[in-house]
Design a protein that fits this description.
Blueprint lengths: L2 H4 L10 H13 L4 H8 L3 H14 L2 E4 L4 H4 L4 E4 L1 H7 L7 H6 L8 H20 L4 E5 H4 L12 E5 L9 E7 L4 H17 L8 E6 L2 H16 L9 E5 H5 L10 E3 L3
Parallel strand pairs: 5-6, 6-7
Antiparallel strand pairs: 1-2, 3-4, 4-5, 7-8
Helix pairs in contact: 3-4, 10-11
Length: 263
């Protein structure tokens, strides 16, 4: 009997609750570091590293560590590998379309991976700044929701307990670099979606997270000029922030976002 045929099938392997939780988080965010995973679970990083090591030895997760990471002070990036995807496919909570797309994770470009990592960091920090106030959903959790087919936000935030005269829904977009064409295309999609009128509680506020203040200024300029070019100015609530401001210990929930008035 060959060595390959003697190995247990992924679906027959018994995982611990912690290992299942880590796989679920990697499904939710696609890429993550051990630090982010430990933060998401509220546990020590040493325990997380041990569980990741066990999952890697089973072939359930992959580890990405480029030669440049050490010089840049970057940690390894983890993702669900083939055996892990087979294991998750037996659980109805995980969308087959998403799992199929994740077979390409090992071959994705560095910019995509970094944006995904930063999106997870943004989600966790927003949850820390607004404990218990919002339900935060990621792209895989929105794939079959018609509301998001045009706008495709990186994160969707919905207020758990609505407050009078306060926004209920938020579409969050994370950009590590600003591309004029990409931003303009996103705004076009948002305005088309807005014209459909399917948001009963009013159109969501838009929240853009960019790398630094220079990128924030460039984004603000692009959005302002785009909206000024419209005959009928849309009533959009738009806010911007930077990665640095988001993660600064001096930042409070009240000074995190810069408003960008549409008028």
């Amino acid at each position: 009997m060959s060595q390959q045929s003697s190995q247990p099938l992924p679906t027959t392997i018994k995982l611990t609750t912690v290992q299942k939780s880590l796989l679920g988080l990697l499904y939710r965010y696609r890429f993550a570091t051990s630090t982010l995973l430990a933060d998401a679970r509220g546990v020590k990083i040493s325990a997380t590293n041990q569980s990741l090591k066990e999952l890697a030895s089973l072939g359930f997760i992959g580890r990405r560590y480029e030669s440049s990471y050490k010089l840049l002070g970057k940690a390894a990036r983890y993702y669900v590998a083939k055996k892990g995807l087979v294991y998750l496919s037996q659980d109805a909570r995980y969308d087959p379309k998403i799992l199929h797309a994740y077979y390409r994770s090992a071959r994705l470009g560095e910019n995509f991976v970094e944006t995904t990592i930063q999106t997870m960091a943004v989600a966790l920090q927003l949850a820390h700044l607004h404990p218990g106030e919002y339900r935060i959903s990621t792209k895989p959790e929105l794939v079959d929701v018609p509301h998001f087919r045009l706008t495709s936000p990186d994160l969707y935030m919905r207020r758990i307990k609505p407050i009078a005269n306060r926004p209920v829904d938020f579409l969050v977009y994370v950009y590590l670099s600003i591309n004029f064409v990409a931003v303009q295309a996103k705004l076009q999609a948002i305005l088309r979606d807005m014209s459909d009128g399917h948001w009963e509680s009013g159109y969501p506020s838009l929240m853009f997270v960019v790398a630094d203040t220079a990128q924030e200024h460039r984004l603000t300029t692009i959005i302002t000029k785009y909206l000024q070019g419209k005959r009928s100015r849309p009533e959009l609530a738009i806010y911007t922030t930077t990665v640095e401001r988001l993660h600064s210990p001096k930042t409070t929930r009240h000074d995190l976002w810069n408003p960008l008035p549409p008028r």
